[in-house]
Write a structure and sequence with these properties.
By secondary structure, this protein is an alpha+beta fold. It has one domain. The chain is 70% helix and 15% strand. The protein contains 2 helices and 2 strands. The relative contact order is 0.21.
Length: 80
């Protein structure tokens, strides 16, 4: 039964990792502006706080699940 919990935590931790990458990519937007007259062309980067906060939260939850997963797996193999 413990191995089922370990497998479930592994799946949820992987989903948290995917969610962190996805929300980070949505939180950073790059805009390119071409030269116009005397103004030079430039790139502008816009950061969206809610998306980056979600990425940080998903990474933290995934990391905690990974730590718990390793503790459960070690406890299971040690026979406790």
């Amino acid at each position: 039964m413990r191995w089922l919990a370990v497998f479930g935590e592994l799946v949820v931790a992987a989903l948290c990792g995917v969610a962190a990458v996805w929300s980070w990519r949505n939180g950073v937007r790059t805009s390119w502006y071409s030269p116009n007259g005397d103004m030079p062309g430039f790139d502008a980067i816009r950061y969206s706080g809610p998306w980056l906060s979600l990425a940080a939260l998903a990474a933290a939850v995934g990391g905690l699940l990974l730590i718990d997963l390793l503790a459960r797996a070690r406890r299971t193999t040690a026979g406790h």
